[in-house]
Write a structure and sequence with these properties.
Shape: globular
Radius of gyration: 21 Å
Helix content: 10-25%
Strand content: 35-45%
Number of strands: 22
Structural class: mainly beta
Order of helices and strands: HEEEEEEEEEEEEEEEEEEEEEEHHH
Oligomer: single chain
Distance between the termini: 21 Å
Low-confidence stretches: 1-29, 326-347
Number of helices: 4
Mean pLDDT: 78
Largest sheet: 22 strands, antiparallel
Number of domains: 1
Length: 347
Amino acid sequence: MKSQPHVLHACVLACLVLTLAGCSGGSARGPVSAGSQSAPGQVASALFVKQWGQILWGLESSQTGTGTPRFGDPIFNPDGSVSQTYTGPDGTQAVITGFPDGSVTLEITYPDGATQTVEQSVPQFDGVSTTTLEWLVTSSRGLSVTYTSVVDDRGTVTNMSDDRTHLQGSSRLPDDLRQDFEVTTSDGETQVQSDQSDGSTFTLTVPLGGPDLAFPDFSQASTGTYATAGVTSEFTLASTAAAPGRWASMSSELGDGVTGEFSLAADFSGGGRLLQNNALTALVSWTGLGDTDVDFVSAEHSATSPAGAAADYLIHRWQTLAALLAPAPGVASVQYLSRMPITSAGE
């Protein structure tokens, strides 16, 4: 029986609050002001992409998958459940327990010591083509995620490429910041919509490729938006000739004639330039964690680190075990894990 694609947990960065010191002064259209208003949104866009890429497809530093995981020997428990250990290429450890009723629990330990517990409900099948699952994720660092996944195989059980998956739920940080999300995968495309309680919004549309349409097709452009405090960034992600297997460039339209042209490294760090009406405004660079440098044409310089919600979501980051099995997240859904062939250690 085939696996269901994208039955995954969802959580993402909220608004990136970047206070750019030394950026006051000038009109709303002046070069320093334009850079100070636009750079935070540009970096936030990249960090949102990074987090969703990790959550949905397990994009790690290579953006193209994480290698081969290792499974331990199965343990048959007295209650009829079966447990198995998992070690991801990045050092993530997990114990997967599948119960006779189809429910699953995961106990995950990340390389930084954080732990998460994932509870998947008993699958509810409508007798035709749709399976509904309820999910609860709790973290040692106070993150909680609840959502419902609905997977419609459209009557073609052996063909994943025509499945439609809809995830809807919310995540909450210890400081009570909330993010409501919907993720829809259908007809070769994944669409993400997230709305944060601070008023910011993020969207992402990604064409899918591969035999099962379960992983980003980097040969096609992906698009999205990030909006906060009246500033909206519309961005396009693309590969390059030098890096055809990942997102390597990011171009943005940020309003008031401000545009951005940036390169992305494999870990989603980046750098490039902001322009206003085609005139250079500032050079911007950031690390994979969002630490940012801005150099303005006026010779002013700003350095800042992510704060508030952005830092919280970086600390509380989470990925499903499914995503860690990239580059085939559809094949690695937890629903799949509950009925996968038991493997021997090292296989």
